[in-house]
Input
Amino acid sequence: MKKNIQKGECGMKKYLMGTWVEGWREAKAQNLTFIVTEDCNLRCKYCYVTHKSSNARMTFETAKKFIDYIFKIKRNEQHAVILDFIGGEPFLEIDLIDQICDYFKIKAFELNDEWYWNYRINVCTNGVNYNAEKIQNFIKKNHMKLSVTISIDGIKEKHDMQRVFPDGRGSYDAVMKNVPLWLNEFVGSTKVTFSSDDLKYLKDSIIHLWNIGINEVAANVVFEDVWKENDDIIFEQQLKQLADYVIENELYDKYQCTLFVDSIGFPETEDSLNQTSCGAGIMLALGVDGKIYPCQRYYPDSLNKREGYVLGDIEHGLDKNRLRVFGTVAKKYQCSEKCQKCEVASGCMYCQAFSYDDADTDTNFQRATYICKMHKARVRANNYYFAKLRNIKGIRAERGEFEKNMYFILGDNYISYCSYLNEANKQKTMSENIIKKGLEYCHNNFYKPIFVHFKGERFVRQAEYDSYEILHIVPSDFCMNNEIYPNEDYIIVVSPKNILNLEKWNGKCKNVIFNICEEEMENLSQYITKCYEYTDRINLNIQNITSKFNYFLYKKELKRIADFIIEENINNGKEKEINVLTDILWLEEHEGCKAGEKNLTYAPDGKLYICPAYYSQGMEEIGDVGSVNILNQQLYSVKYFPICQNCDTYQCERCVYINKLYTGEVNVSPEFQCKKAHIERMISLYIQSEIEKSGEVLHHLDKIEYLDPYSCLKHNSELIGMSVGDDLNE
Output
């Protein structure tokens, strides 16, 4: 069945469930938090405020001095401000909040400051006294500039388990009687916190909140050390059940829940590693004592092991040296190397203040990791949800790429997709049971499943595995026979004999794999230009290359292809790519096939191998989905490739099978593989010279005087006592 993949008109997303719930002018407004009281009329069990018996309250004079100071030091680029009121329970001090807001508005008006117009008042309340007359008058007075959030944890059983009065009674009924009034005054949005004891209520609680009119649910699990064995399993199961409910009832474009977010579960980028997990220090929190804190979680009542972290006070202002800490903390300095390199690190939130409280020393540069298993469970559930959204509803989420891939060789007679030419005629196929085991392994270990299909007539359809995002590599002729619609889920493999199959897709194939053997290379440029009539990108594989490779002919054909690309890209405005020539200009680092490093091959026998060639050639296995053991795995990483470390041919596949076959080592390339890559580099340099006349490339190439980078290894040259240099004209 052909599927219409929906991305929405003008790039708009066709789903709400999976998008982030953004706050007003998020990351663009100065946030000022007023801890107006330490007192609260509830004793929520999971609350991070540890000393709830205090009746301390902020004075108006304290708040007034803080506002005066903030206006005095305000920078011109701070165009908007959020006044956050918290406690304790902030509405216990409604008179004080009203006074503070009035004073802020008068001060901004007197100073003719843009904050007079660009401000927002936020109050997060437990909702117990929401219907009080003074509170309702405050809401009416500030309604157009006010946001009030009532914390409701879900169903009565879940809410009353955690959110209790001082005498132990649940507060659900007391809060719910005020919800209709609240929903009549504000857009329904709430914050829900889950802990170990109440995870079993997650699905029902979220659905309950939607049903009573709360469309936006910001939910999280606590960051503290509360988690028990198998809590992550319960968490994942609850989220998957919620995902099924959403998709079955087509609620994905009606509600939001922050437990599903399309940006989580991928490796951290360099930019994200240079950022913090929160806004501590950017926001400022004023305590009842007149001291200024990085946020409310650094306040003494919120810490268990340490004193409050003070940035200054209303009498002396901010200590700029202490503030410098929060201008320098970033994930790359707070997180261990293991966390930084985690393949699903994005979206793994942590509380900076709690990490400070839990650190081995009095430092902000240490991260608590109690949430690790829970985050991974959330990622698995998100992958499940977005796969079903894609496969069942045809809605493709805007997400990143998996860090790791597992190639499923569905049968011995599989279609070749790399430099290895599969010539096997055996008919062994992968059983349904083995496929399911492999998919489960991928799900649990964050691998992208890639199905490598048969040359023959059997086809495994993705519809059988709706909870997985599967990429299919299929032969073009069979793809046509089975009416497979070309999209990002299918990569089409073509060869000289079936190029014309592409014509039937009317230019909808954006990316194809083109396989060719050495003996067919004389007409390579003709084949490639013909392919470009139907696609914009070609991944070229010259298969089973040997030491007899005809470099001269290859160079000549690549030059013709380069001229065509230059004409199309520069003169005709059509972007045409081919991996061996254009990738090098746009890659920041070596890629290669990553076999043994990031990619594994899953064979019909249920065993795992380094790559398809290792399986087809009867080379050693590396285990199965129950136990993977890659000996000397570091050798499969490019940083352990001695020759590659002296080379900038980033487009080179650096095939580990060819390496092993000809040199006996997976990390040492044979001469002909290096020379082939440098002929490609030579032609890429020619393309670069033309592109740079009107634009730029990401990876600028300099002219070099060799074909084999081995010649740069002076140490090795001296050891063997001979020259290994090459003449570019040979």
